[in-house]
Amino acid sequence: MAETPYLVDSNILLRWAKPDHSDYPIILSAIDSILQSGGVLCYASQNLGEFWNACTRPPDRNGYGLSP
């Protein structure tokens, strides 16, 4: 059986990267299910750009405030 590709949205990446986020457990469970079923996670440059912007945006502007 061929691997099924799943596009990982930037919101999934953001919650996956922050274990103290309230949605982390469900994101982790969903990703584990995809991988266990033989799926493959994919991303696009747009997703990475949005992820980077949110990670480096200050917390008072709905970001994570991480340094580059």
Give the key terms.
3 helices; single chain; flat; mainly alpha; 68 residues
Structure in words:
- With 68 residues, the protein is mainly alpha-helical.
- It has one domain (5-61).
- Helix content is 47%, strand content 9%.
- It is built from three helices and two strands.
- The protein has helices spanning 10-16, 24-36, 45-56; strands spanning 5-7, 40-42.
- A two-stranded parallel ribbon has the order 1-2.
- Helix 1 crosses helix 3 (45-56).
- The longest helix has 13 residues, at 24-36.
- It is flat and about 45 Å long.
- The N and C termini lie far apart (40 Å).
Number of helical runs? Answer: 3
Cα radius of gyration in angstroms: 13 Å
Order of helices and strands: EHHEH
- Taken as a percent bin, the fraction of beta residues is 5-15%
Sheet/helix structural class: mainly alpha
Mean of pLDDT: 94
Q: What is the end-to-end distance? A: 40 Å
Low-confidence stretches: none
Morphology call? flat
> What is the share of helical residues?
40-55%
Q: Give the neighbour order of strands across the main sheet.
A: 1-2
| Largest sheet report | 2 strands, parallel
Tally of discrete structural domains:
1
